[in-house]
Amino acid sequence: YGIAIQEDSKIIVAGITWVDDSSDFAVVRYETDGNLDGSFDGDGKVVTDFAGDTDYGYAAAVQEDGKIVVAGLSVGTTADIALARYDSNGSPDTTFGGDGRVLTDVAGGNDWGFSIAQQTDDKLVVAGIAVVEDVQDFVVVRYDPDGNLDDSFGGDGKVVTDVIGGADSGRAMTLQPDDKIVVAGYVYSTTVDIAVVRYNSNGELDTDFGSLGKVVTDVSGGTDRGWSVTLDLDENIVVAGNSTSTSSDF
Q1: In the beta sheet, which residues pair with residue 2?
Q2: Residue 240: strand, helix, or coil
Q3: What SS3 class is residue 56?
Q4: What is the pTM of this model?
Q5: Would you give the distance in Å from CA 88 to the centre of its chain?
Q6: In sequence order, what are the residues at sequence separation of 6 or more whose Cβ sits closer than 8 angstroms to the Cβ of residue 121?
Q7: Which residue, among 107, 108, 109, 49, has the nearest Cα to 82 in the 3D structure?
Q8: Per-residue pLDDT tens over the stretch 44-82
Q9: 3-state helix, strand, coil in the chain (%, to 5)
């Protein structure tokens, strides 16, 4: 589900593998020629189990210090945002959450982490979905370098955004040079539309962006979803996804 390139051009891929009828985080590192990198946990592959049930790794990032961090979800009683961090050799980084793993329950419902990035101050930002009182919303969570929630962000490290009052799905994130956070995805009302939300570095909505920090775009009158977001050389926000001319279920 996720890919990142190291400074030495080695390739990190994150996703899932099935072990004994449950899914776990899977991280694989390749040499630049596509061969598995044997210096990464001995065979190029690392598997991480969180709760003995369902774990999904959705996004990967390589930190400035070469450590590798993967974000996704882990299912216990509910699904929680899950992060795992590894030293450059593939070993769990025990300075992160005590054993290399961190779980975050946003508001008691199901939570997904779909994107991760490191800020210039080494804090980690994760974007995805949180279900709050049976409603699905955008969520952004920020952690300090040790994996603790950063309470300077939204007061408790977690910011939930109801974009238009229906079901919202935050799927991708990019960080601007001014430390503003841009999250893209889609929202459901009478149709499914692309949505982009921008936050200031403290987690507040950036009211200079769109309508109180939010932009919703109906491309086709049908089903439109944003799956990826980046900045171009002029720092314009570019979103890619898919669009169909007829409506479909969310």
Answers
A1: 14
A2: strand
A3: strand
A4: 0.95
A5: 21
A6: none
A7: 49
A8: 999 999 987 899 999 999 999 999 999 999 998 899 999
A9: 0, 55, 45
